[in-house]
Specification:
The chain has helices at 6-20, 25-102, 134-140, 149-156. By secondary structure, the protein is an all-alpha fold. The protein has a domain at 25-89. The chain is flat, with a radius of gyration of 45 Å. The mean pLDDT is 81. This is Sec-independent protein translocase protein TatB.
Length: 163
């Protein structure tokens, strides 16, 4: 901007004092100060807006780059999946054919299924096994059964004195 030194400001002040007069000079100086402040705030707002728009453009460019990279990764993964499936399909078909040739209706094969009436190797698959051990639940007072409010009150009521 314009470079004002102390000597130039003193010259402008002396000319303003002569032209405007000593009575109106403080009021005019205050008004000029307010106008300069508004101008500086306006310039700062414009600079901030320009910086924001530049940041928005950079973010949009970065988003486009990330989206294109994601699309490339997705395409690569899809292509690899297609290639792997194409390589595995003949093996699955030959395995299906081998299984169908081994299994004949009415025949029994030890390698494919359990004999009728065989017991499951699991202990008791119908009974739900607790995740917390019984000793831990008893020690810490974890309730195992649901009680009504009246039963809970009766359980913790102090005993009556005998008559």
């Amino acid at each position: 901007m314009i470079d004002f030194g102390f000597d130039k400001l003193a010259l402008i002040g002396a000319v303003a004092l002569i032209v405007i007069g000593p009575e109106k000079l403080p009021k005019v100086a205050r008004t000029v100060g307010h106008l300069l402040g508004k101008a500086q705030r306006y310039v700062a707002d414009v600079k901030a807006e320009v910086n924001r728009s530049m940041e928005v453009e950079e973010l949009q460019k970065m988003r486009r780059d990330v989206e294109s990279a994601a699309r490339n990764v997705e395409q690569t993964v899809q292509q690899e999946l297609r290639d792997t499936q194409a390589a595995l399909d003949p093996g699955w078909e030959s395995l299906d054919n081998a299984v169908q040739s081994i299994e004949t209706p009415g025949a029994y094969s030890d390698t494919l299924r359990e004999p009728p009436g065989a017991k499951s190797p699991r202990k008791n698959w119908r009974a739900k096994q607790a995740a917390v051990p019984q000793w831990y639940r008893q020690r810490h007072g974890v309730r195992g059964h649901v009680q009504s409010g009246a039963a809970r009150v009766a359980r913790f009521r102090p005993p009556r004195p005998s008559r």
